[in-house]
Amino acid sequence: MDFIGKSTCLVVVMFGVFIAGSVYQQNGDISWKTIPAQEIVRTVSKVPEVERVSKVPEVEGWEVTGYCPCEKCCGVWATRGVNTEGSRVTSSQHVIKYGTKLIAAPKKYAFGTKMNIDGYGTWTVEDRGGKIQGNKLDVLFFEKSPDHRTDLEYSHQLALSWGRRKNVAVEVY
Ligand SMILES: [Zn+2]
């Protein structure tokens, strides 16, 4: 762009700013210049979250079973599912932390897929299992024990108390 081109462009931009500024001054009692930074931050945080649109609408008829990282639930994977740092990991190599809501789902649901299990919140697909096919899901329990049991023992009890629930409604995001 030559000099004339640049200055024309600058004049047009400045004129635009001037017009926008005058319109703002005339129509509103505050101009953009007078809005303090905190005000802007507050306004932005008030913007409602974009409503999640589910890819697959809620479907009933899922069979959801509780499991934990123990040997009774995972067999050989209880010891194989450990990374080089010694942390327990899922099939996706996601480190299992206490209290995170992870699920094992059939392969058609990519790792990272969110699923809302009716009444039990949103869980993330990070694991697989040989028996997890069709409309079956396994929900992982790994919690810190509030009593004197080991965390694994406690998590296993939680998994057992979930048991196997049939005809559960699940929404896939
Ligand atoms: Zn277990």
The strand line-up of the biggest sheet is: 1-5-2-4-3-6
CATH topology of the largest domain: Barwin-like endoglucanases
Overall outline = globular
The total number of structural domains is: 2
Number of helices: 5
CATH architecture call of the largest domain:
Beta Barrel
Query: What's the number of extended β-strand segments?
Result: 6
Helix proportion: 25-40%
Proportion of β residues?
15-25%
Element order: H for helix, E for strand = HHEHHEEEEHE
Class derived from helix and strand content:
alpha/beta
Description:
- This protein is of the alpha/beta class and 173 residues long.
- The protein folds into 2 domains: 3-46, no CATH class; 56-172, Barwin-like endoglucanases.
- Helix content is 32%, strand content 23%.
- It has 5 helices and 6 strands.
- A 6-stranded mixed barrel has the order 1-5-2-4-3-6.
- A hairpin with a 4-residue loop joins β3 (114-117) and β4 (122-127).
- It is globular, with a radius of gyration of 27 Å.
- The two termini are 48 Å apart.
- Residues 8-28 have low confidence and may be disordered.
- Zinc ion binds next to α3 and α5.
